[in-house]
Amino acid sequence: MRSLGVLSSLLANRSFSTNKPNVLVFNRKTKIKEPLQCNKLLTWYVCGPTVYDSMHIGHASCYVKFDIIRRILENYFQLSIFQVMNITNVDDKIISKARALNMDPLQLARKYEVEFIEDIKLLNIKQPDIIARVTDFIPQVLNFIQNLFDKDLVYLTDDGSLFFDTTKYKRYGKIVRVPEVVPHTFKRSNLDFALWKATKQGEPSWDSPWGPGRPGWHIECSAIASHYFGSSIDIHSGGIDLLFPHHENEEAQCCAYHNVDDWVKHWIHTGHLHVGDNIKMSKSLMNTISVKELLNSYTANQFRTLCLLSNYKSDLEFNDSTMDVACGVLKKFDSFIANCYAHLNTNSSKHIPDITLFKKMFDVENDILINLADNFNTSKTLNLLIELINTFNKLLTVDFNFNCSNLEVIQALNIVFKTLESFGIDLTRSKIKSDAENSLVIDITVNFRAKLRQLALESKSEINKQDVLKLCDTLRDELAAANIIVKDSKKSSIWRNEN
Q: pTM of the prediction?
């Protein structure tokens, strides 16, 4: 008899070890992976949208990837996360579009803000703890600028705008090598950036000690993040487009404001989303696909799977081919889960648990943890799940039962379920977890069909047999039209929901 003591030990220690690996995060400055620095409560600031239009899937891929990282840190490394996201609701683009539509800029921004929040819900993205509109933080912006003004880091231009003087901040360019920038009439240096923009006719404006105006782009994130997190943030994230000038400018003015050498411990940037031939998706190129357009063709789970198949900082290709791969991977997971349920519902296995198979599953769970600690390597994690599923599929008989113990099937099912749910794959949306009432109706229908089909197969009358089998095929096809896929073996039938 196999050693139950060894088996019990494996089960007890499968993924609950306190010796979790250190999380390594890629550092844009040093170009190497470094240990995540944070206390039990991790502070995280996300650069949110400028709400002048619908969110496209290039933006969506960014927020889905951040959501995946957040879930990994919470679910696998037991970190509590406090996350703040800004909403840029006053900006040149908003004002320009509102003018074209003869709308109030703040009303236009509010419309797209509501749409953005609806879209992140559709994509199963966890909402930040706080969503902060720029216009709600004007006093904090003015206080921030006054502090920099008092330190002689700000100058006033002829039109009444205020600029940060990069020549007086000696560590400018520490995040990224500063590229060539377009000369500007008002600036002392081409790298200087606006803190406060003087009001123009028809634009939203607020009073300030320097005259009416509105916040510059970079100052808003600095003021909001500093309001909540002070002089140090664990993670600050955004798309790679924001690395320069936005994040470089944020870091410069915040280090100056707080009198610190480094304001952010870990900058996290996601890669571009391309739509073929390495063409970036952007509104300026007029090649965007909105979230709702995406969801007309694919599910949120399928798009999230695409994001999981590469590292968050890599560029992502979105096309029919890459989505076919993502859909195929998700379908493989769904089919495995369905097969596990079918086995557990119909089979009372008398197999003795195999310690070798349990050891493999134990190793898979440990390897998943190791890979997720290595700069959130989700693609390798999915490969580990696929290898595990392939191992079990080799044990699958023609009657859709696994040639192993139920305990092993439950353990494999748990690993796949836990991992996918931890990544934000909504298994209720994939219809694997149907509600009990619908499942019961389908079970009764499929079981009745299976018995009827078995009678036909055993009948000696070819006419009766063919008539009954034809009826069974008709019912199978009608169920398929309702996304219920029935698979027959010689002696039984199983079903699953098809996305």
A: 0.84
How many angstroms separate the CA atoms of 474 and 472, rounded? Answer: 5
Q: How far apart, in Å, are the Cα atoms of 178 and each of 244, 246, 266, 418?
A: 8, 12, 19, 43
Q: Are strands 24-27 and 41-46 parallel, antiparallel or unpaired?
A: unpaired
Contact 360, 413 (CB under 8 A): no
Whose structure tokens read 């310690």? 355
Tokens of 260: 């610190």
Query: What crossing angle do the helices spanning 57-75 and 300-308 adopt, rounded to 10°?
Result: 70
Six-digit token pair at 1? Answer: 């008899």
Q: In sequence order, what are the residues at sequence separation of 6 or more whose Cβ sits closer than 8 angstroms to the Cβ of residue 427?
A: 337, 417, 420, 421, 433
Residue 26 pairs with which residues in a beta bridge?
33
Quote the CA–CA distance of 2 and 156 in Å, as a whole number: 81
Q: Do the beta carbons of residue 251 and residue 174 sit within 8 Å?
A: yes
Q: CB-based contacts of 365: which residues, under 8 Å, 6+ apart? A: 14, 15, 415
Query: What secondary structure does DSSP assign to 221-269, as a single string?
Result: HHHHHHHHHTT-EEEEEEEGGGIIIIIHHHHHHHHHHHT-S-SEEEEEE
Reference 88, options 192, 185, 224; nearest CA is 224
Measured in whole angstroms, how far is the alpha carbon of residue 444 from the centre of its chain?
38
Phi, psi dihedrals of residue 402, rounded to the nearest 5°: -90, 135
Angle at 15 between CA 12 and CA 21, to 5 degrees: 135
Question: Looking at the chain, how many residues does it have?
Answer: 499
| 238 token code pair | 């955004």
**How many angstroms separate the Cα of 380 from the Cα of each of 137, 417, 422?**
42, 17, 15
Structure tokens at 245: 């000038």
Which tokens hold the place of 163?
């600029």
Q: Which helix (H) or strand (E) holds 66?
A: helix 57-75
- pLDDT digits (tens), the chain, 499 positions: 334 444 444 444 444 444 678 999 999 888 899 999 998 899 999 999 999 999 999 999 999 999 999 999 999 999 999 999 999 999 999 999 999 999 999 999 999 999 999 999 999 999 999 999 999 999 999 999 999 999 999 999 988 999 999 999 989 998 888 877 777 777 888 899 999 999 999 899 999 999 999 999 999 999 999 999 999 999 999 999 999 999 999 999 999 999 999 999 999 999 999 987 667 766 666 678 999 999 999 999 999 999 999 999 999 999 999 999 999 999 999 989 988 888 887 766 678 888 899 999 999 999 999 999 999 999 999 999 999 999 999 998 877 789 998 889 999 999 999 999 999 999 876 544 444 445 555 666 776 677 777 777 777 766 677 777 777 787 788 777 767 788 887 777 777 766 5
